[in-house]
Amino acid sequence: MNIGITLMIVGMVTVFAVLLIIINLSKLLISVVNKVAPEEEAKSKVVSQAPAIAADVMEVIRQTVSQVTGGRGKVVNVVKI
């Protein structure tokens, strides 16, 4: 019985130590990469001019949002994808 408990404790301590080593090495790797590799600049998206949504369709969308949200919702922008 003592051998089993000792083996369990040694195994748990070993796993804990290995996990601590992995965590600290990961943090070190992240900090090194952040210092060495420059941050990429955000590329601006070129938005193509999609055909405008018809006025009657826009009104249906506004009424639907108003009905679903109980009058609290507001349609600001609609983009066709």
Overall 3D form = elongated
The chain-level structural class is mainly alpha
Portion in helices? 55-70%
Number of E strands = 0
Contiguous low-pLDDT stretches (5 residues minimum) are none
Structure characteristics:
81 residues; mainly alpha
Would you write up a description of this structure?
With 81 residues, the chain is mainly alpha-helical. It is built from two helices and no strands. It starts with a helix and ends in a 13-residue tail after the last helix.
Topology:
Elements: H1 2-36, H2 55-68
Short summary:
Helices cover about 60% and strands about 0% of the residues. The protein is mainly alpha-helical and about 80 residues long.
